[in-house]
Amino acid sequence: MNFKVRVIDLAGSCCRLGALQFGTKVVETPGCLIYNRSGVVPHLTPDILETLDNVPPIMHTPLASIIEEPGLIKLRGYGKGLASFIGYKDNSVYISASDYQGEAMYQYNENKSISVWTKTGRTKVTPDDYSKFVEVCRPSWYQSLCDTVPANASIKRTRKSVDRTLEFLDQCLKYREKHDSLKTSELWAAVEGGGLVDERQRSAKESATRPVFGFTLEGFGSDQMNVETIFELLPLTTQNLPVEKPRLIHAIGSPTINSLSRSSKLTEVEEENGNDSSNDQDRTATFSLLNLREDRYNEDFSPLVSGCKCFVCSNHTRAYIHHLIINNEMLGGVLLMTHNLFQYIEFFRCIRTSLKNNKWKELRKLFDA
Amino acid sequence: SRALSFKLVAECSTSKARACLITLPKCSVESPVFMPVGTKGTMKGLTSKQLEDIGFQIILGNTYHLGTNPGPELMEKANGLHDFMNWKRSILTDSGGYQMVSLLDLAEITEEGVKFASPYSDDMLLLTPERSIEIQNSIGADIIMQLDDVVASTTEGPRVEEAMHRTIRWLDRCITAHKNMHCQNLFCIVQGGLDMDLRRKCVEEIVKRDTPGIAIGGLSGGEDKQVFWKVVDLCTSLLPKNKPRYLMGVGYAVDLVVCSALGVDMYDCVYPTRTARFGTALVPWGQLRLKQSQYSMDFDPIDKNCPCLTCKTYTRAYLNSIIKQETVACHLLSIHNLTYQKQLMESIRKNIIQNTFPQFVKDFMKEMFPDGNYPQWAVDALASVNIQL
Ligand SMILES: [Zn+2]
Ligand SMILES: [Zn+2]
Question: What is the ipTM, given to two decimal places?
Fold first, then answer.
């Protein structure tokens, strides 16, 4: 597995264009990973997922969605790894320990373990428990266990978060060192630090001294983290990370950030800080939002986005989707998710193309307009 | 001119089973055929493309639901349901009457029509035969159904006879109201409850109206199966051979096989998709309730001989692990269950054409009831058409 990256200097900001290679598969960056819960992309059966081009060949599965069901015993009994179990046979998975689905219940984390929240409640997970679980999952990538705090956590608690996360990282590394079966699973170090610049930098510098494959930037999807803080903290953090390793940010497109500005802000994040991967899924269209519940779509027989090449826009109208949504028909979610993922993947492809062709400014103008 | 052409492809030399080709405006339909039910212009989370991939040639839409929401005006603007949901093959719509009687507390039947309280306002609305046809004309299905006076199949006494006569009067009003004879086929419905005389009289009257197809209604409402099959058997014996016969609301595997032996061509039922929503997979030996813990470590597919996407991709253990939390689980089970229904109908048809249908029925029943504990009604029904289990 390797990562090739080219830094593109654009009037002082450093964009990064890269390719993460594993086996015959490549994830181009900047790019997005597609998130799944318990192995399913919400709403989508695999045949519908297949209608999307350029789906990254690695699926992101958060620990919380699999620790209970299927869980360790079932996966061990199955014996062929998580990717195969979830029907993703030709491709691979990335397992994250952090669960950005809701605000972290960080006060329940302890020195020796973090708390993972599932449907039936809390499960305490130590770095060894976690590593054992990852071992039966056989992912291509996994993230180190982390104690993520929101931006408004106290200084003391934020420091503790950085210390614990480094300690967890070392234990994950130690376990990986001792177990050959994890050799093909690359470890990403979680970088913490809440809303504090000093702690962000300490976490980045310390993590950078460890033998890890890449870095994940945690806590940026927190409700307490506003866009301004994100843009202040990110460059100060990433300047302490080695250039040649990939960076992944979780949940940067949180629905708490105004979505319209989000799309243009997101390009700034990419431009100024050169994060390599972002990860999000949303029920709404990416660039400007259509609320398909609104009455005005009742008789609108045009596609969601004219010219969109996705399966949905080629086959169905706004009026039909409006009808499905207001009647709470499950197909409404299926169609919206399909279109949105297509747009999201396409968005990142445009970013990469514009970087390759030196058309970055033109692309930005398009999104800012 | 007719919007339907009917060809009898093969008849079983033992039983009354038959394989037909029913050519409709949008798509030819090979029978015996099961029609899945897409209530509101959608099949429970599946795209029209997925239904096409499974191989369905005809699906059912509900007039009551489509007529209230999105409504006939929008249906007209959308150029009909086919375009609205982007389904290029055939559609059948029911009359809407049955849905009202079964879904709404306040439905009241008069000679005029079915009176009911709008679920969206305080208004009292009236579904007349004319209105039902008008709505169905705007939906534009290949086959539309007359409004009939539906009584519970367990009802007895003069109400059953009244309903039968009213159904015939309503049929005449539907025929007069029907505007799209050239592109939509109006089917009549045999009523008469569980009374053989009434059924006979009803068939006699409606056959005179010479509609392109005929449905057998008023069954599948929890009546005694021994009476059920006798009514079906009587109707198929009385009905003309050169028209499709549609048994409404029937969709259990055993019922499909037995009723096909009795000479039924078309079926519809919400069962495969409804049972999928409750986590049940249909298999040739019965059903699997995948929520049960016995499947949590079962790494086989639902049915290793099933060609569906679900069986090719997932194990029972995986489905068991997502079934309580992910709607995708219910889409996956719907895909499997609908594939099962489709495959079953294809086997029935193939065996009728090859004249191996009696043996097929025996094999099917043996697999479904390996201990030989066959339901008596099925044994009797099949014996009546010379298939001895
Ligand atoms: Zn689209
Ligand atoms: Zn299957």
Answer: 0.95
List, in order of start, the domains of chain A with CATH numbers: 2-269 (3.20.20.105), 278-368 (no CATH)
Q: Minimal CA–CA distance to A350: which of A332, A340, A362?
A: A362
Question: How do residues A201-220 score in pLDDT, each as one tens digit?
Answer: 999 999 999 999 999 999 88
Whether residue B323 lies within 8 A of chain A, CB to CB, comes out as no
**Minimum mean pLDDT range among A102-106, A188-192, A323-327:** A102-106
Are B49 and A330 a contacting pair at CB < 8 A? no
**Per residue in B10-66, pLDDT tens?**
999 999 999 999 999 999 999 999 999 998 999 989 999 999 999 999 999 999 888
Among A70, A119, A319, the residue with its CB nearest the CB of B318 is A70
The widest CA-to-CA distance across chain A, in whole angstroms, is: 63
Reported pTM: 0.93
Average pLDDT for B248-276: 97
* Percentage with pLDDT > 90 across chain A: 56
Among A222, A214, A157, smallest CA distance to A191 is for: A214
Are A210 and A170 spatial neighbours (Cβ–Cβ below 8 Å)?
yes
A42–B86: do the CB atoms touch at under 8 Å?
A: no
Instruction: Decide: A98 and A216 in contact? Cβ < 8 Å.
Output: yes
CA distance A89 to A83: 6
- Which residues of B have a catalytic role annotated? 94, 268
Which chain A residues touch B70 with a CB distance below 8 Å?
298, 319, 323
- Which of A70, A327, A335 has its CB closest to that of B40? A327
CA distances from A222 to A71, A97, A110, A227, B135 (A): 27, 15, 20, 11, 51
Residue A120 near residue A165, CB atoms below 8 Å: no
Tokens of residue A2, six digits:
């390797």
pLDDT digits (tens, 9 = 90+) for B300-312: 999 999 999 999 9
**Cα-Cα-Cα-Cα dihedral of B222, B226, B232, B233, to 10°?**
180
Q: Do A77 and B332 touch (CB under 8 A)?
A: no
Distance CA B329, CA B332 (A): 5
